[in-house]
Amino acid sequence: MRPSGRTIDGMRPISIEIDVTRHAEGSCLIKCGDTQVLCTASIDERVPSFLKNSGLGWVTAEYGMLPRATNTRMRREAKNGQSGRTQEIQRLIGRSLRAGIDRVALGERQIVIDCDVIQADGGTRCASITGGWVALKLAVQKLMNAGDVISDPLLIPVAAVSCGIYAGQSVLDLDYPEDSEAGVDGNFVMTADKLIEIQMSAEGSTFTRDQMNAMMDLAHKGIAELTAVQIASVS
């Protein structure tokens, strides 16, 4: 039995509320159980120097956790003093979202996705990617409505979900009690039918290919559910 009482393929309740901030071109609050992440998208008509005059757009991300997102207060991270974990998650979010965008159609501009964890209960990077895509979609819609972008550069929704081995079973969408005790921990970034990135590590026990395949099957189910919520939120 999982601590939450869910079945092994059961997701936490997922909700996405859009347009939660006034100034950002795209914004949403995503809730995955007790994990809550505020995602905003900001359009910048400039691109990084290495992309000047290339005709290509760029999507990048920043990630952070508020001091009381966790059980005990954390110190705020200055940008030049970010932990390795924070930097790794930021790069993951950016890579993931760029995989689902046509950078030529976006045009030579940059969209920055900010993901701020309000409350953490496991799966914050997955929630950030899933909500980040929604914020990105809303920002792109504004560009299209203004005529600044002719064709939709977002090719397909991108979402992410965690899977792991808890108490000897492959389970979907780990919350913190499971994540902290899991023998194997994994994050799956996907479109509806294609893989973008998989992060898998043994956290105290090894795993077999059959167990890996079982987690893949669970991830496909979870991504389908997340994608449905994403599409409904921006429709």
Automatic annotation (TrEMBL):
GO terms for biological process: rRNA 3'-end processing; rRNA catabolic process; tRNA processing. Keywords: Nucleotidyltransferase, RNA-binding, rRNA processing, Transferase, tRNA processing, tRNA-binding. Its EC number is 2.7.7.56. InterPro entries: ExoRNase_PH_dom1 (IPR001247), ExoRNase_PH_dom2 (IPR015847), ExoRNase_PH_dom2_sf (IPR036345), PNPase/RNase_PH_dom_sf (IPR027408), Ribosomal_Su5_D2-typ_SF (IPR020568), RNase_PH (IPR050080), RNase_PH_bac-type (IPR002381), RNase_PH_CS (IPR018336). SUPFAM superfamilies: Ribonuclease PH domain 2-like, Ribosomal protein S5 domain 2-like. GO terms for molecular function: 3'-5'-RNA exonuclease activity; tRNA binding; tRNA nucleotidyltransferase activity. It catalyses: tRNA(n+1) + phosphate = tRNA(n) + a ribonucleoside 5'-diphosphate. Residues 11-139, 157-222 form the Exoribonuclease phosphorolytic domain. It is an enzyme of class 2 (transferase). It comes from the Bacteria. Transmembrane segments: none annotated. Phosphate binds at residues 85, 123-125. Phosphorolytic 3'-5' exoribonuclease that plays an important role in tRNA 3'-end maturation. Removes nucleotide residues following the 3'-CCA terminus of tRNAs; can also add nucleotides to the ends of RNA molecules by using nucleoside diphosphates as substrates, but this may not be physiologically important. Probably plays a role in initiation of 16S rRNA degradation (leading to ribosome degradation) during starvation. Belongs to the RNase PH family. This is Ribonuclease PH. It comes from Octadecabacter antarcticus 307.
